[in-house]
Amino acid sequence: MTWVALAIVAALILAPLFYAFLRPANPRGRGEADRALFEAQLAELELQRDEGRLDEVAFRAATVEVQRRLLAAPAPEAFRAPPRPSALVLAALVLVPVAGVGAYIWRGTPEMPSATLEIRQAMGAQEDELLNRLRERLATQDPNTEIGRQGFILLGNAERNRGRWTEAAAAWERAQAIRFDVGLAGDLAEVEIERGNTEAARRWIERGLSLEPGDPRLRFLAGLSEARAGRNEVARATWTALLAEAPANAPWRDIVEQRLRALP
């Protein structure tokens, strides 16, 4: 039954927590941890030298630096083991998933089957009907008003969510003709890149950057459009400049770095 499977999954998820709480403590002081780290670094340097990734001069220089840090590391100190978890904590680890499974059995429907093809098709037909009503409403209103603009944005969002890139781009272009928005220019650029129309994407990116030159999303998309067009060196230069000017804690740094490493 479904609820039995849920209970087994919950037990498997909690097993590492029980192990972490119940296993014997093996504490380390700061000095011991530092020494273990530096010794591992020395072993890694030797491995890189043996594999030919590090020449002898660089190996000696790096080894001397690690050895210097190893000598400067504090001596191992006495370390008190952390207290054992209380019975209340261990009981909570058991009672919380048990209560969750029980509540699901009581209030949920674990045996409910998934939606049939007929149901999904009916839902799709309803969504199509709503989109048709929205199109009809936009056709009867002045398209140059802010209400009309918001309607075209809504229509574009719906079309994009259904994977209709061409229809989404057409709706958003109508909205941009009423009033240009930098964020929507980024959305249009993404859709054009997905369609393989990198030149159209570049036009939207350049127009957006002319208003907000430092916009990181548009600068990332500029590199992406160049990469999709086969201009890898231009994409590399674009992303390298973006990373050079980005804050160290920018949440999107990892994404840009991954894209940069993936360039041929």
TrEMBL record:
The keyword Ribosomal protein does not apply. InterPro entries: Cyt_c_biogenesis_CcmI, TPR-like_helical_dom_sf. Keywords: Cytochrome c-type biogenesis, Membrane, Transmembrane, Transmembrane helix. The chain crosses the membrane at residues 87-106. GO terms for biological process: cytochrome complex assembly. It comes from the Bacteria. The keyword RNA-binding does not apply. NCBIfam families: cytochro_ccmI. This is Cytochrome c-type biogenesis protein CcmH. It comes from Roseococcus suduntuyensis.
